[in-house]
Amino acid sequence: MADAKVIPFDDDRSRSGAAGPRPGRRRALLGGGARRRNGEGAVSPLPGPQPPGEAPDGAGPGTDGTGGVEDARGGGAGVPGGDASGAGQWERRLAGGLAFLRRRITGEYEVDEFGYDAELTDQVLMSLLRPLYEGYFRVEVKGIENIPSEGGALVVANHSGVLPLDGLMMQVAVHDNHPAGRHLRLLAADLVFMLPVVNELARKAGHTLACAEDAERLLQRGEVVGVMPEGFKGIGKPFGERYKLQRFGRGGFVSTALRAGAPIVPCSIVGAEEIYPMIGNLKTLARVLGIPYFPVTPTFPWLGPLGALPLPTKWTIQFGEPIPTDGFPPEAAEDPMLMFNLTDQVREQIQHTLYKLLVQRRSVFF
């Protein structure tokens, strides 16, 4: 596929600061009777209307020397050559949107070997998740600087909430807050890639199968990789066991980090446990449907589709201090005792931070 220059929808953000009133506009609005301060603090009259063809000193684009003013809606009425910043922004956004659609239709965009589509993720998928992140869950992010600005890193987080919204919110947190603009590549369960539509969207968003080989390749390429070792045991645990970490498997994520020499960044997420309080599990129905659990909450399945709406809890995502792994010899990845110790260290750090955040929390919803 041919390379194409990415033109994001919000291409004008970096220029919006320069889209304010143009030189001379304030003079035209004030008229001849207005006054301004000179460089020494003295007050001097602003030049009044000038004869046609003669503009006042310092008048820039947007004034023609006739004392005309811009249209109240930001148009160029009365100002030859005037261009409204708002209209210009919308024109640029429209042009960017049309260029984006053209690339989608013609296939002039790139994906990596895992199916990750950076342009689609930045411009569409993150935009769809951002209202949920900012307005609904009101996510507060702490310690984002603990994720390295360059090179591979393995982010290890707790998992909860019946549906894996915590992973998506963690992805937005890194995407929108990291000073180096890093992207989080999540490792997902097999079930994710067996579901129609979800499979394609997950690939496009940079998710890949939770296996050691894929994770190691991403880390060696310098990517930030996210993993939730509790898996379905964490996301499907009863509400009575909220914020109690389940077993972290056999420590395969530690072995992967050791092979790649990538630091491990513990991550604690508070707020996801309460979005779907799971008070029951219809195991027989789950087996029939081929899913790990079938949740029963105070609203689901009693209210039907409406019961699938998550509660608007207040979230906090904290990234802890990284645990380095590059100081270990290559054979350390095969040492079961070392893997057990590091796994336990990561788990304890996440659990301790969860308790600390819970003590600091004023309420579930505020």
Automatic annotation (TrEMBL):
Annotated stretches, region: Disordered: 1-88
Composition bias type Gly residues, residue spans: 59-85
UniProt-listed InterPro entries: Plipid/glycerol_acylTrfase
Keywords annotated in UniProt: Acyltransferase, Transferase
GO cellular component: membrane
Signal peptide: none
Domain named Phospholipid/glycerol acyltransferase: residues: 153-272
GO molecular function: acyltransferase activity
Presence of keyword Transferase: yes
TM spans (from-to): none
Superkingdom of origin: Bacteria
Protein name (record): Acyltransferase family protein
Organism, as annotated: Streptomyces ficellus
Phylogenetic classification of the source organism: Bacteria, Bacillati, Actinomycetota, Actinomycetes, Kitasatosporales
